[in-house]
Design goal:
- Helix 4 packs across helix 8 and helix 5 (127-136) crosses helix 8 (180-203).
- With 703 residues, the protein is α+β, with helices and mostly antiparallel strands.
- The protein has a six-stranded mixed sheet. Strands 12, 13, 14, 15 and 16 form a five-stranded antiparallel sheet that branches.
- The chain starts with 13 loop residues before the first strand and ends in a 5-residue tail after the last helix.
- 35% of the residues lie in helices and 14% in strands.
- The chain contains 25 helices and 19 strands.
- The chain binds thymidine-5'-triphosphate.
- Thymidine-5'-triphosphate binds at residues 18-23, 53-54, 119-120, 226-227.
- It comes from Acacia crassicarpa.
- Its cofactor is Mg(2+); Mn(2+).
- It catalyses: DNA(n) + a 2'-deoxyribonucleoside 5'-triphosphate = DNA(n+1) + diphosphate.
Length: 703
């Protein structure tokens, strides 16, 4: 989701460096005889000659495009050299490219704060370096400016004599009457050219760059003149640049939000957004996205260069195009096992090298159903807390897949696989590990770190079996699953036994007593079963709208009281299930609440919660009705408290989308996590709830 950030008034110099036809360059470094030849890297599969994933600039001249397959590329350019990506475990092995990307980052990081944006893209904040240069050796004082700098493109700068471009650029760089911003950018251009030459010398890779006062503009500019060139964006040229810049090409606008701008507002270029007031954009897309759109129309972006040299996540995926589509669970399991093996290896090496652990495992897939391989429908992505160890990741991944499949085909069981309506095919599978956390070094801090996550508790033992089993329908072990963990290992998210124990001993400086494991609550308990079914727990933010709702911060005296009361009782528990556990004993079974007419989700409050449909959230929060009947309600005239007849006790329900998220702020942090996971999927576009107050949601009787 786009995030509006206020731009600082300070002058900044940000560069975005993007490697040219990166995989091709990596392959050409391995095989120097390919240099200068039309070359393309193809995916690992022979279907129609394999999909092209990187195309050299020589091949582009012949009309070879990334969208082509090998066969087609050979038709338009018979002399093309097709190189297959390295292969491991029957799929592409991108490690060579990742490592090559790291080589580049390590050169750049010497000069400023770097953010690795992708396998071959880096942002670098050169403000300090440019300021220092301007002070000590400004461009106009330089006897010699390198040719590479003089080849820079300066947006909006009209070169009068085409034959004298370098001389003209030199003049622009050395203007003594330039404003401070442009002077800094001129210094930035000199530094970036130097860095690019350094990268070429040390890695043999060429790259292109954009130099501007913010990340957004630097990124736009780096793609404007490729390969091996750089583009400067003076402030005065921002309006001209955005005026004609296609809206769908803008970062974060390639998807639904960009399409909505086109179809609903008739906006086709970024500049056309200038026609709309901030209020209008906010009304249509929500406060945050509205402001973000208003900002980008003006080239405003306050986003900082994050200072991250390591990837944000790890992923392993594979496509199964055409006839290769996976049509049985056992085939899916076979490939998931391989993908998980690779993921696990990379997580292990990240842990070894960087002392980082990942906290979330996500499964994505593309699929078709009903035997129609052309009709791809969205296969729901699913997430759960990540447990280290290849076998555990494999087990959790297949469970996530099955949860997704069940939702995807509406109803799923093995017996009906053969029937036409339940036929399906998987054309793409991937697993990703995200939410990377660096483990603080030092005995004291590591204890503190784990202490926060692993408070002693027996809550898991009280987690309803039914919930666990339903959520993990085919757990091979029949026991431990991504939802039902209670081993020390799973809590720590640590890798295989030996490494884990070794690492813990080293970290704590003491013997680790494994037997203590049973007493600890694991992170997975923070995940509601519904969240896993919905793929919402800890789900990575998607770059499309829904738009974030405005948050309302209101005092919530009633709920606060309840929370305080329970918190005192339940200190140390990590799950909302546990949080309310004292009230289960005498509860009755819960009736499942169907999705309401508006597609909303209903949270049924009662006991013996059965994990059921993805649109129904059931949790054992009976205590709310015990202590605070009036705390939950709806505002649409439907009964807020649905007393379940025949069960002897009331089971309360409320529609999730009608609960003010600010209520969650009042809950203990560990409970907040879980409740937030319930809220996430309910964010909807074009809804700006104004004037919502907590009493509105939590009044006893709604008409
Ligand atoms: P890009 O930076 O998008 O492209 P590129 O470096 O090949 O070419 P350009 O000079 O135009 O920037 O992608 C970087 C690498 O990522 C690319 O070399 C191959 C890989 N890649 C894929 O594997 N699949 C894809 O769909 C894309 C877009 C890239």
């Amino acid at each position: 989701m786009p995030v509006a950030t206020r731009e600082t008034s300070d002058a900044r110099v940000i560069a975005h460096l993007d490697m040219d036809c990166f995989y091709v360059q990596v392959e050409q470094r391995k095989q120097p005889n390919l240099r200068g030849l039309p070359t393309a890297v193809i995916q690992y599969n022979s279907y129609k000659g394999g999909a092209l994933i990187a195309v050299s600039y020589e091949a582009r001249k012949y009309g070879v495009k990334r969208s082509m397959r090998g066969d087609e590329a050979q038709e338009v350019c018979p002399q093309i050299q097709l190189v297959q990506v390295p292969v491991a475990r029957g799929k592409a092995d991108l490690n060579t490219y990742r490592n090559a990307g790291s080589e580049v980052v390590s050169v750049l990081a010497r000069k400023g704060r770097c953010e690795r944006a992708s396998i071959d893209e880096v942002y670098i904040d050169l403000t300090e370096a440019a300021e220092a240069m301007l002070k000590e050796a400004p461009p106009e004082n330089l006897d010699d400016i390198h040719e590479e700098v003089l080849k820079s493109h300066v947006l909006g700068f009209i070169v009068e004599d085409e034959n004298d471009t370098k001389k003209e650029v030199r003049k622009w760089l050395c203007r003594s009457d330039a404003d401070y911003h442009d002077k800094l950018l001129a210094c930035g251009a000199i530094i970036v050219a130097d860095l690019r030459m350094q990268v070429l010398k040390e890695t043999e890779f060429s790259c292109s760059a954009g130099i501007a006062h913010n990340k957004m503009l630097a990124k736009l500019a780096s793609a404007m003149n490729k390969p091996a060139q750089q583009t400067i964006v003076p402030r005065s040229s921002v309006k001209g640049l955005l005026e004609s810049f296609p809206i769908k090409k803008m970062k974060q606008l390639g998807g639904k939000l960009g399409s909505s701008l086109q179809s609903d507002l008739g906006v086709n270029t970024v500049g056309e957004l200038l026609k709309f007031s901030e209020e209008k954009l906010q009304q249509r897309y929500g406060i945050n996205t509205g402001t973000w759109l208003w900002n980008i129309a003006r080239g405003i972006s306050g986003e900082e260069v994050e200072g991250r040299l390591l990837p944000k996540s790890h992923g392993s995926g594979k496509n199964f195009p055409g006839p290769q589509a996976l049509k049985t669970i056992s085939l899916v399991q076979h490939w998931l096992n391989r993908l998980c093996e690779e993921l696990s290896e990379r997580l292990q090496s990240d842990l070894d090298q960087n002392k980082r652990i990942a906290r979330t495992l996500t499964l994505h897939a593309r699929a078709y159903k009903g035997g129609d391989s052309d009709s791809h429908k969205n296969f729901p992505s699913k997430s759960c807390p990540l447990r280290y160890g290849t076998a555990k990741i494999q087990e959790d991944a297949i469970n996530l897949f099955q949860a997704g499949l069940r939702e995807y085909i509406g109803f799923y069981n093995n017996k009906s696989l053969g029937s036409q309506s339940n036929r399906w095919g998987i054309t793409s599978l991937s697993v990703a590990a995200s939410k990377m956390v660096t483990i603080p070094s030092g005995t004291h801090s590591i204890v503190k770190y784990f202490g926060g996550q692993l408070q002693p508790s027996s809550s898991l033992k009280q987690t309803p079996e039914s919930v666990i089993h339903e959520a993990a329908p085919s757990s091979p072990s029949g026991g431990e699953s991504c939802l039902g963990l209670n081993s020390y290992e799973s809590q720590l998210g640590y890798p295989e036994e030996d490494t884990r124990m070794k690492y813990l001993r080293a970290s704590f400086g003491q013997q680790v007593d494994q037997s203590k494991g049973d007493d600890l609550t694991e992170e997975s308990s923070l995940l509601s079963p519904q969240a896993i079914e919905n793929g919402t727990a800890e789900k990575e933010p998607q770059p499309s709208f829904p738009v974030e709702e405005p948050r309302h911060i209101h005092a919530v005296p009633t709920l606060k009281t309840v929370v305080k009361k329970n918190t005192a009782k339940e200190k140390g528990n990590c799950s909302i299930l546990k949080f309310f556990k004292n009230h289960h004993d005498h509860c009755t079974s819960v009736k499942q609440h169907a999705t309401n007419g508006q597609g909303g989700k209903t949270l049924s409050i009662g006991s013996e919660s059965n994990y059921h449909s993805d649109s129904t959230i059931n949790n054992q929060v009976e205590s709310l009705k015990e202590t605070n009947h009036e705390a939950i309600g709806t505002d649409n005239g439907e009964s807020s408290a649905s007393h379940e007849a025949g069960e002897g006790r009331a089971s309360w329900s409320y529609r999730m989308e009608e609960i003010d998220p600010s209520v969650v702020d009042e809950l203990p942090p560990e409970i907040q996590l879980e409740v937030r996971a319930w809220f996430r999927p309910l964010k909807r576009p074009n809804v700006v709830k104004r004037g919502s107050i907590i009493t509105h949601y939590f009044s006893t009787n709604k008409d």
